[in-house]
Amino acid sequence: MAHDTDQTPLLSGPAPDPAARRDRAVRAAVAQGLIGPATPVAGLLDVTGIRASAAALHAAFDAVTAPGTPVLHAFAVKATPLVPVLRLLHRAGIGAEVASPGELALARAAGVPPARTVLDSPAKTAAELREALALGIAVNADNPEELARLDTLVASAPTASPLGLRVNPQIGAGSIGALSTATATSKFGVALRDEGARAWVVRAYLDRPWLTRLHTHSGSQGVPLELMAEGVRAVHALAEEINAAAGRRQIDTLDIGGGLPVNFSSDEETPTYAAYARLLASTVPGLFDGGYGLVTEFGRSLLAKHGTTLALVEYAKESGGRPIAVTHAGVQVATRTVYAPASWPLRIAAYDAQGLPRTGPLVAQDVAGPACFAGDLLAENQKLPRIAAGDHVAALDTGAYYFAQHYSYNSLARPGVYGYADGPDGTVRFATVREPQQVEEIVAESGGALREELTGL
Question: pTM for the full model?
Answer without folding.
Answer: 0.93
